Structure formats: C-alpha cells, structure tokens
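task queued by scheduler; priority normal; single chain, no ligands, no partner chains; default sampling; output format set to structure tokens
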Amino acid sequence: MILLFFALAGILIAALLNFFHGRKNQYRNLGEIRGLWLPVLGLALELPFTLFLAYAEKAGWMFTIASYLCIFAFLFLNRQKRAPVWLIGLGTFCNFFVIACNGWRMPVSVRALAVYPDITAEAVYAKKANYFVALHGANFSFLSDVIYVPIPRIGGFISIGDILLGLGTAFFIVQTLTDNKYPELFI
C-alpha cells in the first residue's frame, strides 16, 4: 500500500511540475517505459502468500524469487533512467536480501504486537505466509519492516528497502512524466 502512496505522489508532483512549466500531454512518454507488465506480474506473484497459504508455505521461495526477478528485469529494461532505477534496485535488493536471509519471509518488528494489541505473531503468519514477527530476532533485522508509519489505511510497518523503492518509484514517474522529449508543435 505504501508503494501506491509513493506512485500517486509521483504522479501529483509530475502534474504540478508540468502545470507550472506550461507543459501539456507529457503522458506520451509512458509509451517509452519498457516491460511495464513485469512489475505487475511481480506483484501478482505475491498473491499466493495471501490466497493459498498452504501452498505458499511449501514453495514460497519460488514465488519470491520469481517476483523479484520480474522487478529486476523491469529495471534492466529501463536502465536509461539511471537515478530512479538505482533507487528502486537498491530498495528491491535490500528487501530481497533480508527475506532470503530469513527463510524466505520478511521479519516484522516486535513493536507491531504493541501497536496492534489485537494481533498475535501467529495471526500475522496466518494472514500472510511470507511475514513473521521477529520475536526471537532476525538476520539483518535493520533491513526488515521496523519503521512504523502511523497513517490510517496506508500505514503499518515498512523497511528501509520499501522507502528506497517508493522514492525510486516516485522519482521514476516524475522523470518519465516531465521529460520534454515531445514538445508541443505550434503552427
């Protein structure tokens, strides 16, 4: 959900920049994004962790690797957008690294149990098989979901990787939608 917030922020910033610079119809630039279906597929590959918990428990590593490969392939195809791709890539790598080092599941801060008193560690796992509350610690826990965002509907716990990924996504959108490759033709 936090990624959607960053994407919407990127769209809003791009629209404001275009408005203040008097540019119109910069949305033609969207056609230059290569492999846009890859991150969509990558996000879809996360669905088994919510919908098919029993299967995700057994083959979760496979869905995780496939999901992250889709994102890295998208970044490779769009590598000409250097700064945003590096931010997204670094955030994606941080998340993948901490997940791979913790049995293919993302650790969530123990503080989550205090913030959400009606939830238990077992309930977190029952809701999403690729997360666990790090009651007994976690490998590289500073990269896990330890940052609390107290915003209703989009808040919760996020990681450093999520922040980098979100900032990179917003920057990618702004860079794409404000690029003046197709200036208006005045007759």
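post-processing summary
- The longest helix spans residues 53-77.
- The first strand starts at residue 106 and ends at 108.
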